[in-house]
């Protein structure tokens, strides 16, 4: 079983996201957290899917030189929200958070999470996409959510596991956990692949 194979390695999550820490713990994986600030607005021209994989790789690579990668597996992750092919990043302040949610109100958007795993000489990157449908939101509802939950560290200015997810999300197509920031099913498959490859 994968969990048994992972016991042979040190697992490092290169992310400060509390949601990613929670979800990785939920998989039964023992890990440490180590992260460095990285540039989340690269100058290169990426598609949304390429961008999240690049940012996940960048986060993993930023701490890689601190470890012996023969004995360590490093996991990087990043998430973006896309509306009409435009990336909605983390809000800069309250007014920006309100503006982003006003744009998402009553529409479908995409949540795209990228993963990158480093181990030995292996680099494995992938991503997952979930469609999220918001009902129309009033300005009062949006302001209440922003004031109460302060979603300034979240792509798209919201957390699906919070009040707005209970109240405003009509349906999703894809992984719920991907919207939280870590596509757990994809990560499990990638860890299966990279641990199997390292044994060959």
Overview of the molecule:
The chain is 40% helix and 26% strand. It has 200 residues and is of the alpha/beta class. It has one domain: Alpha-Beta Complex (Maf protein), CATH 3.90.950. Strands 1, 2, 3, 4, 5, 6 and 7 form a seven-stranded mixed β-sheet that branches. The radius of gyration is 17 Å and the shape is elongated. The mean pLDDT is 93.
- How does the helix and strand content classify structurally? alpha/beta
**What's the rounded overall pLDDT mean?**
93
Strand content: 25-35%
**What separation lies between the terminal Cα atoms?**
16 Å
Number of domains: 1
Give the SSE order as H and E letters. Answer: HEHEHEEHEEHHEHH
Task: Give a quick summary of the entry.
With 200 residues, the chain is α/β, with parallel strands linked by helices.
Which descriptors apply to this entry?
200 residues; alpha/beta; Maf protein; seven-stranded mixed beta sheet; 8 helices; elongated
